[in-house]
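Morning. Coffee machine broken again, so started the prediction first thing and wrote up yesterday's gels while waiting. Chain of 560 residues, entered below exactly as on the submission form.
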Amino acid sequence: MEGATAKAASDSPNGGNGKSARVRGQNAAVGRFLEELRPKVLAAFENDNVGSLPRPELAVRIGQIVTTETEQEALNLLERRNLVGGLINWLLHCSPKAPPKPDPAAARPGANRDGVARTATSRPNGESKDDTKTQDQSAAYSKTVAEAKQTIQPLVMDRLDVSAASQLPREDLSHQLRDIVTEVLDEEKLRLNSPEQTAVVELLLDDMLGLGPLEPLLADDSITDILVNGPFQTYIERHGKLELTDVHFRNNEHVLNIARRIVSIIGRRVDETSPLVDARLQDGSRVNIIIPPLAIDGPAISIRKFAKKSITLDVMKRQNNVSDAMATVLKIAARSQLNILISGGTGSGKTTLLNAMSQMIDERERIVTIEDAAELQLQQPHVVRLETRPANLEGTGEITMRDLVKNALRMRPDRIILGEVRGSEAVDMLQAMNTGHDGSLGTVHANRPREALTRLENMVGMAGINLPAKAVRTQIAAALDMIVQVSRMRDGMRRITHITEVVGMEGDIITTQDLFVFDFEGEGLDGMLKGSFRSTGLRPHFAPKAAYFGLEKRLLECIG
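Came back before lunch.
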């Protein structure tokens, strides 16, 4: 039995479809250039303290090296961004120039890097004079580059055939821009050093070909969310905490142009007739855009970044998002073809957990995924991805989640995976689960497992089907096997707080039982929440199903 479970944990996708082949090709190209460019990056930063440089400056300078050294290669924007991000991370964490890791003693209140109490030269917030000076220099650099770009951009654009320039490869356009920028800087009597000129050229290129000021943020792998609130306020989420950045756009029109560039790639539009839209970037990152008149203070862009490294249940276990026993039970549940609903709040990690659990699906099964904006990262070879479509300018042609669920039932799926259940498609999903499509997965917004059931019941009502409450609950109880509750807590850590089974009906009430819960115990000195994942000791209701797949013994060992 143990061997079967070990296989579930170690199964690796074989990537047999065309998309997987393309991804492997992109990764190979990026990996080759990573090795080739590391010595050049190291030489370029030979006289710099890389730990003191802001990431936007690193992105701009490394971006110029990438542009110069990959001139003969046709790297697309996504490959280039991945290459720049990989080189930044290598420089900061693995290269000979990487700054030393902080001494844990230095993190103690009242201690400096040597663990000794602060001297009179330290700042109250723990920053030294040198730290403050470095930050001031970084801010001055960013401000100088931004001001120079803003001053010369209209003059540069006047000398370019923008429509022709946008068709050029980035490398060719970079050479032309560099000459024009040098001319304009001389005419305007602006004095910039070589790195600053390079930075201005890269920013202009990002504006013309990429996503403008967002490019350095997209290249930073430590950032999980990018939140643009109008032209002058951009937040990021890093390690579960929100931070205000110094990223600015010129005006509302600049933000709107970036938004239009994003949605045009997937054939959608954003304008006054369609002022809100869900979209995705080339790398799979999820994007929501809402513009005036609905967004009062200017266009708002929310980007949930695509994780380059696939998160597995084993990774989540190492990160303490889940206990060892809970991870094993979730693997067995997915292998045993349970119908599972993942519940949680916004940004709690529902899609990440769904991706992790989907890796336990057998490669021989046919999977159909249904999403508003495709973001699931399934690695199995036999996956059909479906995506909704908004109405056209005449208000016709809309394809809803419910339409796609109905169509999926005619596609001979082994499993149906819904990115998010949010409306009347809940009826068709439950019918699919009740008609032989075991092992289906979906997510729902709710704060507790019982609330997830209530929301599901309410969504069935949205379909306009007039059924008694007991009949709806009976259908839910028959269809669903398990609810997994995931939560992002106030310390930024995402944890699975409940693994709850749907057992059946008792009168008019759906009965459930918790297999595991997270018990909060307090807060540590480092600000992280303390708690433990606890097994309730109850025998799983799905033990007979696990026995059918030869996994019952391992399941009971985890519960005990």
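Residues 222-304 form a domain with the Beta-Lactamase fold (CATH 3.30.450.370). Going to sketch it on the whiteboard this afternoon.
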